[in-house]
């Protein structure tokens, strides 16, 4: 195996081969050892999913190769220059808790930090940041360069190598490596992670023109990869579309005609390892809000015949639609347009909300219908992308293709949209690809313990009909799955069970856990009568009628009481916990709700422990199931009874029959006897199913 220093030199050679004018023979000699190594994991694609997958696989202990078409675009923000938001910010926090890259990269590259949804409870707050594109890309590349056991190679993957499966494992095929488009000999690996983004049979649209590609300025991906997935492996694929707005020259915009939206005065970092962001509070840049006009709608309608992308059948993102889709779906309305900076020194603005695919001259006409941009100039026109995705119900919760050993998928190839969704999938696919290659069992995250678990379960259990975006409303237990406690939920598990978290982060999480437990115990032990509490906290609005005993936790739940107030009243026992003042306040507010949810969480976890064998022939299973239900189960092949309850088309009777089958065959992990369940147990699962469906 090459040493860590050799890998760094190798990446340096690859990155600067054009600068040094190396000829093909010299370049191939410099990187020849890449093709001679048996890697544990190969990751294809250098976007958010690919970078997280490669870094995670290496952290788990696998010798990993990351293949990207261009070294310089690894970690690039292909569309909007931002990270996080409502639902998405929770994913960033969880990726960071598992030692991922994007949270720390956001803290380094952020130039405008804000917490969205502050008017609601902390459980649904959305940490968000505008990013400096160059800083973000440089941070990601620097992290990958300094990651042991990780090699980066520039190239385009032509095809996957497929062999006969291991008969002792489920699956009809086995992926054993890749072949690059330059005709080099195969590169072997035990696991391959595909994170192709919009490049899988991608097509670019602008006006009536169409060309192959997944991102403007980059070469299209090889058609051989799509052919392998569809024809050789027999995977069901679909077609989705997305788009990006034109980039506007900043100096050509009259920002005095837009509403200024300043950042938070005290930036909140994404990463649990950071106490502050790289950008100082006073150095942050504002964003600007403006709106469309009737003139925008007129230009859209007049140019529909020139826009072939909007006429295509492929589904676009419901929650980030093009301006054409907005106008057609909501005629006569005024739509928000956010003017967002792309960097500290950048002279470009990103007009969030103006994704469009009309001809460039029509795009210019449209943006000039908005008062603040009446003299605007376009730096780069907007365009649309259509691309293939693999129906994600063909994946296991480990994001491994059920029918193909050693093949994992993550990101937009699974039908999702957004950097954060891609990063979350990439990390988990990388973890399991590495564990599989190292002969360790794959691991899954439950929807009861993380938004990543919700994301993956939604994909593999329900599939997608349009690009999937994360929202807090998708999580049943969002009061427990908060941004503030992602480290306590996932970091310890990531170190002790998964193996993807460093000892430094683990020790910090243990310190935080112990300190919070100590502080909460102190608050709980601090018990006074309401009369004495009013004396200690005269500004607190507390009923004078009541005269009961309240603990510090009870009092901290009051809206007008902060931990700082309690620490000032009881400095001897609380002042040394000021580091966690906000977290303690949030914990006090949500603890009663979380305690009420515990039984429901335990019920779902019990269902998830009732595994369904992957070799079941549902079409001939000797239980009473309708033909429709058999087809659904055979197509999706849920891994647990819990996943089966969430499938569209399942009936209460079918769930009961599956439950009885699991009990009879001894598949329930927590119980090995074969006693026939009584009617009360059956009734319980019928009630559970009905509740889930509602």
Note down, in words, how this protein is organized.
One of its GO terms (molecular function) is flavin adenine dinucleotide binding. Keywords: FAD, Flavoprotein. Pfam families: GIDA (PF01134), GIDA_C_1st (PF21680), SAM_GIDA_C (PF13932). This is 5-taurinomethyluridine-[tRNA] synthase subunit MTO1, mitochondrial. It comes from Cyclopterus lumpus. By secondary structure, the protein is an alpha+beta fold. It is built from 23 helices and 23 strands. The strands form 5 sheets. Strands 1, 2, 6, 7, 8, 9, 20 and 21 form an 8-stranded mixed β-sheet that branches. A 6-stranded antiparallel β-sheet has the order 14-15-16-17-13-18, with no helix packed on it. Helix 13 (486-498) packs across helix 14. The longest helix is centred in the C-terminal third of the chain and has 28 residues, at 581-608. Mean pLDDT is 88; it is low at 1-32 and 667-677.
Properties at a glance:
MnmG-rel; 694 residues; eight-stranded mixed β-sheet; alpha+beta
Mean pLDDT: 88
Summarize the amount of helix as a percent range: 25-40%
Number of helices: 23
Main β-sheet description: 8 strands, mixed
User: How much strand?
Assistant: 15-25%
Number of strands: 23
Kindly provide the radius of gyration, computed on alpha-carbon positions and rounded to a whole number of angstroms: 27 Å
Strand-pairing-aware structural class:
alpha+beta
Shape: globular
The separation of the N and C termini measures 55 Å
Low-pLDDT ranges = 1-32, 667-677
InterPro entries: FAD/NAD-bd_sf, GIDA_C_N, MnmG, MnmG-rel, MnmG_C, MnmG_C_subdom, MnmG_C_subdom_sf, MnmG_N
Cofactor: FAD
Catalytic activity: 5,10-methylenetetrahydrofolate + uridine(34) in tRNA + taurine + GTP + A + H2O = 5-taurinomethyluridine(34) in tRNA + 7,8-dihydrofolate + GDP + AH2 + phosphate + H(+)
GO molecular function, one term: flavin adenine dinucleotide binding
């Amino acid at each position: 195996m090459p040493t860590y220093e050799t890998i760094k030199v190798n990446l340096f050679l690859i990155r600067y081969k054009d600068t040094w004018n190396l000829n093909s023979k010299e370049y191939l000699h410099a990187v020849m050892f890449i093709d001679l190594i048996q890697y544990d994991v190969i990751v294809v694609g250098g976007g958010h999913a690919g970078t997280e997958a490669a870094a995670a696989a290496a952290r788990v202990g696998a010798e990993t190769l990351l293949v990207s078409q261009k070294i310089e675009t690894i970690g690039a923000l292909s569309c909007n220059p931002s990270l996080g938001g409502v639902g998405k910010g929770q994913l960033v926090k969880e990726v960071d808790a598992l030692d991922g890259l994007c949270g720390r990269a956001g803290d380094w590259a952020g130039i405008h930090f804000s917490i969205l949804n502050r008017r609601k409870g902390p459980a649904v707050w959305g940490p968000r940041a505008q990013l400096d594109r160059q800083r973000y890309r440089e941070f990601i590349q620097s992290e990958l360069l300094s990651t042991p056991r990780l090699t980066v190679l520039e190239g385009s993957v032509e095809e996957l190598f497929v062999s006969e499966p291991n008969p002792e494992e489920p699956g009809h095929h086995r992926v054993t490596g890749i072949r690059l488009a330059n005709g080099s000999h195969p590169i072997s690996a035990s696991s391959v992670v595909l994170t192709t983004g919009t490049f899988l049979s991608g097509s670019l649209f602008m006006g009536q023109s169409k060309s192959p590609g997944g991102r403007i300025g980059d070469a299209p991906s090889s058609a051989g990869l799509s052919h392998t997935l569809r024809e050789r492996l027999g995977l069901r694929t679909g077609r989705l579309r997305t788009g990006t707005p034109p980039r506007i020259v900043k100096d050509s915009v009259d920002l005095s005609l837009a509403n200024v939206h300043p950042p938070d005065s005290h930036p909140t970092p994404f990463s649990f390892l950071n106490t502050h962001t790289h950008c100082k509070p006073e150095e942050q840049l504002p964003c600007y809000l403006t709106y469309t006009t009737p003139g925008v709608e007129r230009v859209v309608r007049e140019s529909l015949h020139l826009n072939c992308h909007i006429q295509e059948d492929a589904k676009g993102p419901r929650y980030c639609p093009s301006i054409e889709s907005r106008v057609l779906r909501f005629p006569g309305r005024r739509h928000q347009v956010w003017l967002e900076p792309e960097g500290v020194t950048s002279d470009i603005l990103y007009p969030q909300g103006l994704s469009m695919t009309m001809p460039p001259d029509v795009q210019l006409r449209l943006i000039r219908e908005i008062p603040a941009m009446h003299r605007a100039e376009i730096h780069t026109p907007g365009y649309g992308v259509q691309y293939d995705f693999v129906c994600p119900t063909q994946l296991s919760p480990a994001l491994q293709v059920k029918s193909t050993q050693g093949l994992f998928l993550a990101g937009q190839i699974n039908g999702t949209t957004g950097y954060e969704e891609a990063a979350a999938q990439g990390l988990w696919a990388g973890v399991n690809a590495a564990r599989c290659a190292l002969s360790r069992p794959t691991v899954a995250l439950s929807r009861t313990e993380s938004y990543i678990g919700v994301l993956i379960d939604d994909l593999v259990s329900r599939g997608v009909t349009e690009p999937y975006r994360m929202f807090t409303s998708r999580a049943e237990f969002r009061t427990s799955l908060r941004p503030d406690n992602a480290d306590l939920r996932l970091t310890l598990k990531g170190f002790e069970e998964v193996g993807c978290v460093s000892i430094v982060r683990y020790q910090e999480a243990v310190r935080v856990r112990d300190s919070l437990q100590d502080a909460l115990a102190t608050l709980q032990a601090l018990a006074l009568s309401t009369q004495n509490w009013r004396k200690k906290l005269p500004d607190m609005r507390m009923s004078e009628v009541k005269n009961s005993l309240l603990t510090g936790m009870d009092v901290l739940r009051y809206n007008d009481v902060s931990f700082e107030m309690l620490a000032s009243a009881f400095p001897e026992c609380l002042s040394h916990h000021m580091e966690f003042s906000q977290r303690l306040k949030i914990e006090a507010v949500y603890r009663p709700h979380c305690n009420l949810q515990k039984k429901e969480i335990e019920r779902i976890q019990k269902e998830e422990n009732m595994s369904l064998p992957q070799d079941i022939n549902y079409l001939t299973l000797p239980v009473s199931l309708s033909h429709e239900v058999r087809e659904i189960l055979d197509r999706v092949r849920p891994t647990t009874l819990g996943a089966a309850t969430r499938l569209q088309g399942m009936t209460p009777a079918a769930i009961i029959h599956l439950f009885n089958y699991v009990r009879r065959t001894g598949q329930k992990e927590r119980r090995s006897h074969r006693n026939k369940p009584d009617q009360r147990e059956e009734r319980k699962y019928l009630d559970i199913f009905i509740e889930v469906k509602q």
